[in-house]
Write a structure and sequence with these properties.
The protein is mainly beta. 0% of the residues lie in helices and 43% in strands. The model has no long low-confidence stretch (mean pLDDT 81).
């Protein structure tokens, strides 16, 4: 919504709300909603262009939480490769 209260515009589609997002100097990093195979995509909404860029797909994410380094070159996330109970 514009600051003067007029006009509403959709900014993002398919945001995984449980994952949160990270606002960085170059834009907003966010995860898409998991697809039917459980795959989510880390994306960047760039402030300069207003465009969304796909960064990487994740499969088997144990939680939607992630961190991005200040320079945007490193991502920290938690993934389950195999789960078993005895």
């Amino acid at each position: 919504m514009q600051l003067d209260g007029g006009g509403i515009a959709k900014v993002l589609d398919s945001v995984f709300l449980d994952a949160g997002w990270r606002v960085m100097q170059d834009g907003v990093y966010f995860l898409t909603t998991p697809d039917n195979k459980g795959i989510v995509t880390l994306c960047l909404l760039e402030f300069a262009s207003g465009k969304t860029r796909k960064i990487i797909n994740f499969e088997g994410l144990s939680s939607g939480r992630f961190s991005v380094s200040h320079d945007g070159r490193t991502i920290l996330y938690c993934k389950i490769d195999e789960a078993a109970a005895t």
